[in-house]
Every structure is written in C-alpha cells, then in structure tokens.
TrEMBL record:
Protein name, per record: Pantothenate synthetase
Family: Belongs to the pantothenate synthetase family.
NCBIfam families: panC
First-listed, main subcellular location of the protein, grouped into a coarse class: cytoplasm
Record keywords, A-Z: ATP-binding, Cytoplasm, Ligase, Nucleotide-binding, Pantothenate biosynthesis
HAMAP family attached to this UniProt entry: PanC
Assembly and interaction partners: Homodimer.
C-alpha cells in the first residue's frame, strides 16, 4: 500500500530471483480499512516510493486510482474459513474480505505466475492463499521473511507514526517474541505466554491486543509443542499506532 521501506524492497529482490518480470502495485485500498481515520492518515509518499522501486530495479509499477479498481458498487464476500475471524479478524472485522477483494483484482489485472508477500502480515498471507484456492487461480503465493531494524523492530509503514518514546517502547514486541523462540524448548506454552504478556504489560504506553502461540495453518491457539508449523503472533497499540509482529517457532 505504499510508504515503502527495506522490507518491501526485499520482496522485490526475492522476486527478481524467481521471475523474469517484476511488477509492484501501490494502492491504498479503501475496502480493507475498518476505521476511516486509519485510511485518511495512511502515509502516501509516492515520490519516495517510486525512487525506491527505481533503485531496486523493479520493472513495472501498477498504481491505479480508486475509481479504476472500484468503478461502481460491488458486493464481495467469499468463505475464508474460521481463521478470518481470529486475531486481526476479531479486531478488524471485514478486513480480510477487503484484502482478498483487492488482491483478486490485482491478480486479474497482472496475471502473475508468482506473488510475493511479507511474513509480517502472517494472517494476510494465509487469507490470500485461501482466496487463491477458492478461485483455483494459477498463481503461487510465496511468503518472504520479516525484515527488521538493527534493534529488532519489524519494519512497517506505520513506524513513521511512532514518537521517539513510542519507538523505544515498541521494541518490547520483538523482545517478547524472541524470548518465546529462545525458550521454546525448555518451557511450556502457558509459561511462555505468561512471560511474554508480563514483559509487554510492564512497558508503559503499550496496550496489548493479543499474544498467542498458534497453529500456522489454522491460527487456532496451540497447546502441543510437538505440533508442526507453530508461530507466535502479537498485536499491540503503541502510543496511537497499532503494530503487529510474529515469529516462526519450529
């Protein structure tokens, strides 16, 4: 959606290893915002974004207007399964319907063989994979690793809204995730969750929405450490900015 950073550039770089032609879309999609104020304040530094894409060697930039993508009223609702209503789906109802609606339009316009999405939006990748299966689209979804600042903060377009104090406080999210990963072998899941939540609650200015250890395929909370594809996911409001992050555990 624009406000590009090194995490987005990493997607371009990975795509260049797989594909002959790399297309990047920039579109702040109104149907996935559940809060009009969030849509209004979403950053749109287009000249900065274009310069980053030129320097990365991106072949095509697809930057349509809202009227081009939504020329008239339309009804969209597909079955994304129970995971749609968990985690982000609980806090941002209808969000993933809007996400899959615009990604389907993007795929229809570009007809890609491969599509690259960042792991930071873990649930989003899962929902897009579900949408691709629903329509039997001939595109392979590739999830790419989270890119972090040197101090561990996951790169995000929303980070520009963080004050200096918020920026320091936000580091507790990656610290809590790293704690869970580092102690996963020796501690139980309930103990890991308690320690991570306690760690976050001790930082003023950070309001936790959720911290969970879940099955990476269903997003249901998981209590069995021997289950494969486990992921720790967190969302919190830091100051006035809501951030998400996650870490693969096994």
């Amino acid at each position: 959606m624009g406000a590009l950073h090194k995490g987005h550039v990493s997607l371009i770089n990975i795509a260049q290893q797989y594909a002959d032609v790399v297309v990047c879309s920039i579109f702040v999609n109104p149907t996935q915002f559940t809060d009009p104020k969030d849509l209004e304040k979403y950053p749109r530094p287009l000249e900065h974004d274009m310069q980053m894409l030129r320097e990365a060697g991106c072949d095509v930039v697809f930057m349509p207007s809202v009227n081009e993508m939504y020329p008239g009223p339309e009804n969209w609702h597909i079955d994304l399964g129970p995971a749609e209503f968990l985690l982000e789906g609980e806090f941002r109802k209808g969000h993933y319907q809007g996400v899959t609606q615009i990604v389907k339009k993007l795929f229809d316009a570009v007809s890609p063989d491969l599509a690259f999405f960042g792991q930071k939006d873990f649930q989003q990748v899962l929902m897009i994979e579900t949408m691709v299966a629903y329509f039997k689209l001939p595109v392979q979804i590739i999830s790419c690793p989270i890119i972090r600042e040197s101090d561990g903060l996951a790169m995000s377009s929303r980070n520009i809204h963080l004050s200096e104090t918020d920026r320091k406080n936000a580091l507790v999210l990656s610290r809590a995730l790293s704690y869970v990963k580092d102690h996963f072998a020796e501690k139980s899941i309930p103990d890991l969750l308690k320690a991570a939540k306690d760690m976050i609650s001790e930082v003023a200015g950070v309001e936790l929405d959720y911290f969970t250890i879940a099955n990476g395929k269903t997003l249901h909370p998981e209590s069995n450490k021997n289950q494969s594809d486990l992921v720790a996911l967190v969302a919190a409001k830091v100051g006035q900015t809501r951030l998400i992050d996650n870490m693969l555990l096994n």
